[in-house]
Amino acid sequence: MHRNWIGISLAALLVLPAQAQQSRDFGSPEEALMMLQRVIGAMRADQAKALHLLNEGAPGFRKANLYLYCGDASGAFTAHPDLLGASMRDMRDKRGNPLGEWLYNTAKEDKISRVVYFWPRPGSTEILQKVALVVRTGDQVCAVGYYRRGHRGKEMIP
């Protein structure tokens, strides 16, 4: 009996690190929420500094595949790893849905809301369901997106 328990424990130790690595590769909804709450505080304190930190991917504003992005009232990205200055408002998801318009229309001052859209994971072409947590803070619409686990492109209400 004691020997079986040790065997099971050893097997669990070998499997858990692989599962932990997989979950670290893709950010969780909780991590996304914490990042967005962090950006709200940073934007209130000093918007210019917050945007600078977002664009450089400073600790706390980027983790695994999670990153914050923002757009100003004109619709241009003011923070994004690759699209700085491009139109956030004109952005479409991989099914052609008007993602940018959804983000701008959903964002409310200091109230975090959700927008569901479809996007592939980095390095993949498989379209998955993704959720953007979005908020308006001052003249900025800021969001962070995470992949919904177990939802492979299914039409679902969040």
The rough form would be described as: globular
Topology order in helix (H) and strand (E) letters? HHHEEEHEEE
Strand content: 15-25%
What is the residue-mean pLDDT, rounded to a whole number?
83
Q: Helix/strand/pairing class, anyone? A: alpha+beta
Helix content: 25-40%
Oligomer designation:
single chain
Write down the Rg.
18 Å
Distance N terminus to C terminus?
A: 46 Å
How many beta-strand segments? 6
Question: What can be said about the biggest beta sheet?
Answer: 6 strands, antiparallel
- The tally of helices reads 4
Task: Provide the low-confidence segments as ranges.
Answer: 4-24, 153-158
What does this structure look like?
The C terminus is likely disordered. Strands 1, 2, 3, 4, 5 and 6 form a six-stranded antiparallel β-sheet that branches. Helix 2 packs across helix 3. By secondary structure, the protein is an alpha+beta fold. It contains four helices and six strands; from the N terminus they run αααβββαβββ.
